[in-house]
Every structure is written in structure tokens, then in C-alpha cells.
Write a structure and sequence with these properties.
- The structure holds two protein chains of two kinds.
- By secondary structure, chain A is mainly beta.
- Helix content of chain A is 9%, strand content 37%.
- In chain A, strand 1 and strand 2 form a beta hairpin.
- In chain B, the strands form two sheets. A five-stranded antiparallel sheet of chain B has the order 4-3-2-1-5, with no helix packed on it. Chain B has a two-stranded antiparallel sheet with strand order 6-7.
- The longest helix of chain B is centred in the N-terminal third of the chain and has 11 residues.
- Classes of the chains: A mainly beta, B mainly beta.
- Chains A and B meet through strand 1 and strand 2 of A and helix 1 of B.
Chain lengths: 220, 125
């Protein structure tokens, strides 16, 4: 498995804009990345067979969670007190050193302004989308005799040879609501006190959506 | 108020320039910083506010003026650090938020009505 740089789970708040000192407008997405608490450290040598940090984030009332889920918080006093809403895993190529259950990782520990990040989220669902929206086909002319064929994709194959439509032929179908990672977004600003990350550009998903932010794998 | 609104309000209130109450129909003098190479100077642009587009930190306003017989409209980002100062020169009575009708009017027809004097002894005068 490829090396995964350290990242954190958070929430997309929405977009706004910042002004630089010279008046340049920076479009930013505001992400709320509250501290993630480490539940368990998984190692390839241990019984898990792979390297990862199991982290908990968000808050949830204890009575809304199953006992099984509450049991996972055992051993971490802060989480026994106020349980987390979500549990996620951050995988690593090498055994994560220097981490132990009960620790929390905050935005300021992982990210710094000016550096790049990759943001993973679930894109907005578009339903059953036609070929123009889904694959950017050009469609047909509105006039010049085109008849009831404005947003079609045209031919999907030939005749007896090869006798079938090729696999992977781009057609209409379900679009969106899939895992998307946007790479190399620049961190425009960090507000460590309020756990806010201002990232330049757009991030997948609706406002309030859960996202995973990590140090960019391609950043040097 | 959710967090994003709080953040947007902070961006607007943290700007260095003092807040000015600008309304459609106002004649304003906008002191805009112009950067030429490595030198910055201030250019004053005076005209009528014909539109305010409210959008938190992205708020803009459009100022129209006649410049040597040609109508000129400039859109200013209200929160931009490139605006040093905004002065309201005079205020007029307008009955709509977007004064686009001024575009087809020139000269005397393009004048706006002054505000009605609402002070108590106005009628006596």
C-alpha cells in the first residue's frame, strides 16, 4: 500500500472569500477540523495485520449509540464521558510511531498555512444524468432539422462487426454521490483556536458533509 | 447564526477601512488604490451608486458617472483593501434598489430628487 500522509476527519462548512493585502480575492472553502482522538493504534505486526490509526471525531449523545459502539470508546476516558459520532481509520505504510490511544490530534498539529492538502469527500448526487452532463458530450443542434434528438449521445456502435456495443461505452447513468479526492489545495489560512482550515478552491460534497483532509501526497 | 456566517461577518468587520453607510442613489467619492508597477496611488472616483449587491465579504457596489459624455460604470468590491475611503457626498430620494433606469437618461433627465426635508420646521421655511 502506498504511503498515506497524516490526515484528519472534519466537516465542510461552506465557501466564502478572503482578500489578500493587495486586493486579490481568494475563493476558499472553510473546513471545520475538530481534534480527532486516537482510539487504537493498529500495526501490521499485531492482530490487525495492517498499519492504521483508528480515530473518533464529532460528538454524539450516548443514548443514540449502540452498546457495541460505546464499547469501542472504553479505555479513553474523554470519549467514555462524551462519545464521538464517527469512527474512522487513517492508514499508514509504516507502523505509526509515537501515537497511543487517548491522544488527540488537532488541526495545528498536522497542517500549516501555505502547505498543500488533499481533500476527500462524497460528491453531490446528480441522479440519473444524461450523457451531456455526465460525460460532457456536445449534444446536437437546436435547429437545422434536428428532431427529438437534442441531448442524445449519437451512435453507440457499428453493425454486424463487432455486433455488440463496447464495454465502457459512455452512456447516461447515475452520477455523483461517489468518493472524490481533490488534490493539492493550498491552505490559505488556519484558525487553530476554532479548528478551522481555510482551503483555496472547492471541495467535494454539500455543506456540512464529512470530509477527510490530509497532507498532499504530491506536495514536495 | 452558523459558523460560516460568523466567519463572513468577521472578514467584513475586520477590514481596516471604517464602515460607511452607502445606499442606492448616493453620490459617493471612492478613494481607490491604483497599483502601477511598484507604486501605489489613490484615485478618486465620483458618481452615483446604482446598485448594491449584498453578499457578505463579496459585497459589491456599482458607481455610475458621466465621463466626457460617456457613461462609465465601475464595480467596487466593498471589502477590498484597495478601497482607502468612501465618502457620501449627497443623498437622493430613490424608490428602487437598482437604478438601472439612469442608463437611458442623460443631462437634466438623469437628475435624482433630493431627500425630503423631514425636520420639524421645514414647512415653516
Amino acid at each position: 500500500m502506498k504511503r498515506t500522509p497524516l490526515g484528519l476527519f472534519g466537516r465542510k462548512l461552506g465557501m466564502t472569500q478572503l482578500f489578500e493585502a493587495d486586493g486579490t480575492v481568494v475563493p476558499v472553502t472553510v473546513l471545520e477540523v475538530a481534534p480527532n482522538s486516537i482510539l487504537r493504534v493498529k500495526t501490521a505486526e499485531g492482530k490487525d495485520g495492517y498499519n492504521a490509526l483508528q480515530v473518533a471525531y464529532g460528538t454524539q449523545k450516548a443514548h443514540r449509540l449502540t452498546r457495541a459502539r460505546l464499547g469501542q470508546f472504553k479505555g479513553v476516558p474523554a470519549l467514555e464521558e462524551s462519545p464521538a459520532r464517527h469512527i474512522g481509520e487513517i492508514r499508514f505504510a509504516d507502523a505509526p510511531a509515537g501515537y497511543e490511544a487517548g491522544q488527540t490530534i488537532a488541526v495545528g498539529d498536522v497542517f500549516e498555512a501555505g502547505k498543500r492538502v488533499d481533500v476527500t469527500g462524497t460528491s453531490k448526487g446528480k441522479g440519473f444524468a444524461g450523457v451531456m452532463k455526465r460525460h460532457h458530450f456536445a449534444g446536437f443542434e437546436r435547429s437545422h432539422g434536428v428532431h427529438e434528438y437534442f441531448r442524445h449521445g449519437g451512435s453507440i456502435g457499428t453493425r454486424l462487426t463487432p455486433g455488440h456495443t463496447f464495454k465502457g461505452k459512455r452512456m447516461g447513468g447515475h452520477m455523483g454521490d461517489e468518493r472524490v479526492t481533490i488534490q493539492n489545495l493550498v491552505i490559505a489560512k488556519i484558525d487553530a483556536d476554532r479548528n478551522l482550515l481555510f482551503v483555496r478552491g472547492a471541495v467535494p460534497g454539500r455543506n456540512d458533509a464529512m470530509i477527510f483532509v490530509r497532507r498532499a501526497i504530491k506536495d514536495v | 447564526m452558523n459558523l460560516i456566517q460568523t466567519i463572513e461577518r468577521e472578514i467584513v468587520t475586520n477590514r481596516e477601512r471604517a464602515d460607511v453607510d452607502v445606499r442606492p442613489g448616493d453620490t459617493v467619492r471612492v478613494h481607490a488604490k491604483i497599483i502601477e508597477g511598484d507604486k501605489a496611488r489613490i484615485q478618486v472616483y465620483e458618481g452615483t451608486v446604482i446598485r448594491i449587491h449584498r453578499n457578505g465579504p463579496g459585497t459589491t457596489f456599482t458607481v455610475r458617472k458621466m465621463s466626457s459624455g460617456v457613461g462609465v460604470e465601475r464595480i467596487f468590491p466593498a471589502s477590498s483593501p484597495n478601497i482607502a475611503k468612501i465618502e457620501v457626498v449627497s443623498r437622493y430620494k430613490v424608490r428602487r434598489a437598482r437604478l438601472y433606469f439612469l442608463r437611458r437618461l442623460t443631462g437634466k433627465a438623469a437628475r435624482l430628487k433630493p431627500l425630503r426635508d423631514t425636520t420639524r420646521d421645514a414647512a415653516a421655511r
